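Bumping with the actual sequence this time:
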Amino acid sequence: MAKDKALAPAVKYFFKRLEERADEIRAEASEFSSQHQEVQFDDVEGFFRQIMTQNIFIHTVGINGKHESTILAKAIFSMNRVVRIYYSTSFDEENSGFIRIRPDPKEQLIIVERMHGFRPVSEQIYVNHDQSSIIRFMIRWLMRRIDWDKTKLNNLDLYKRVVAQEQEEARAKIEAQIAQQEADAVQRALSKLSKRGPKRLTTR
């Protein structure tokens, strides 16, 4: 077995610099995390990861620059606390674009921005610290782009679950109301009996 070749001084120098830079990055990350709280983003990520499993289609611009109906599974990408929704995947990079949603720990906000064209510069279109507000904004954005010719509401598994849950909640509410009415009726009957008091025995 041939012996390993001796390491060249340039290689040693290269890895020494890598080591130094890695230590600097770790120190910077530690300092940053100690000064900034993590922005809550789980609900936003969870929302998009759930709806992208459904057969929901949105109007987009396809690779040939023509209109295309794209299923959410191909339009949405969620990774490392960043969500992307592509509305254009044209071969012409000047016409490519997506919406990016990401938390900003420094500003303690969630930022929705548009990235469009070749070497795009981010264009903020909505900013909020509240996850629910971000989700509502993106729902409005999606509603304007849904392809209703291909999206069949009654065929969506999540929609069926939503309907079933609402029916169950309505049933539980009715049962609770009936139980409360019965309890109130019993309470009123007992109250009447207590007001009458015990019957007196009469003697001749």
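The tokens above came from a reply further down the thread. The chain has five helices and seven strands.
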